[in-house]
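The authors assume throughout that readers already know how a fold can be written as discrete tokens. For illustration, here is how one protein appears when written out as sequence plus structure tokens:
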Amino acid sequence: MRRPKTVGKRQGRNCLDRISTLPDDVLGHMLSFLPTRSAVKTSILSTRWRHLFTLTTCLSFDDEPFFAHPQENEEIEATRKFKEFVEKVLELHQISHIKKFSLLCCATYDNSILNQWITNAVQKGVQEFYYQLRGDIDFVHDHVGLFMSETLVSLKMIGGEYYKIQIPLSACLPKLKILHLHHVIFFDFKSMERLFSCCGLLEELTLRLCACKTGGTAIHCTGTLKGLTIENCYFLSGILEIDAPNLAYLTYSLNIGVKIVPSWKTSCSFVKAELDFQCINEDSVEHERELLKAAAYKATKLRFGMESIQLLNFDAGEQMPDFHSLSSLHLGQCPCNAWKYVTSLLDKSPQLETLTFESGMPCCLGSDDGFPDHCDYCYSGSPSDIYLVPFSCPVKVIEVSRFCGHMGILLLLGHLLKNASILERLIIYTIPGTDSDEEELTICKDLLWLPRASRDCHVEVHKGNTRNSITSSHRRR
């Protein structure tokens, strides 16, 4: 065994370089946790470390450090240096199989160069591939080698603003279990369908800010999918249908042209669901309501906007489902005549802890200055019937943004507080423009006069929407 090398003296004793005595494969594994550029820098430590970076099982390339302090007209030179660095490392790399390959670069590199690097990783049996492209170069990427990997288990791609991909006819990813696509535009619906159909073992699918250039229908049917995240995806000229009877985890937010087919209404078994219905169109109301019903029992977080509050308007012969696991409810501005749907939802949510009014309390539509116009519900001489119906409100925290202190808002908030028996915190963010001390004092007095079922309710008033500057804090005595 190699004798440890003496590297210096400390407190009269020799200090030994024990790390360098470790086997090459161990040192290579340690360097795999570093960005490849940092791992290469260790080659100057000594002759022992000169070639250890070629034994790493993870390769991570990022061109951002090469552009850290670019001088005028030096972007081209930085691009050339990064290209040479990647190619040299891949040429010297000695491990036949790599676990993870990460490539983060701008969109100035030719498609053939990117494919060459990707093909090198695929040929080395890469299992996890992370690809992030910066910039907005408008051309179509095919990446044939990437979509024909027999070893790939995880594929995560983040595109630029105009990052378009075309899936080849020969696409085959037999071991892929995790697929994340962010800001990707599919060349056509056939490409999308080919990608999904070639992943027979897919368990986790994430689509964020994805779209398609053409119209059509893409159907993805799989019994292996357990986790599904679809956020801000827009398929204006077509429909993406997903049939996943064994789905357990769902995050669904602000999508157009996405349809969860009805077949899993009775067969799926959710563990957790987060649904965001801030904005919907008329064509998707029925589908969104079916989705809400299917995921209701395991939904932990819900968000409704003004247009989507109608999802809670179930037919007379159909009861609202129980939201047994719901812990967080966010409401955008909605007309006060929809308040009955909200109270029904509160009745059906025994585990609810946080209720947030993101755009103010429910009221009629506001004017340009943010203050509500006249409404028969809010400004009638006596409280409307909607304020007199008792309901269950198990929340511990209520947050209200854009609070203006008008009579109708106070009546509605007072009705809410009278039914919130275990409320711990009432957090108020005043509407921008109510920053004077007199207005602030008036709002505080009005809030303190409101009857509350909870004696431990702590009232906080913040200026505007600034969460870090508490102006007043009061506890009911």
Remarks:
- Confidence is low (pLDDT under 50) at residues 365-374, 376-383, 467-474.
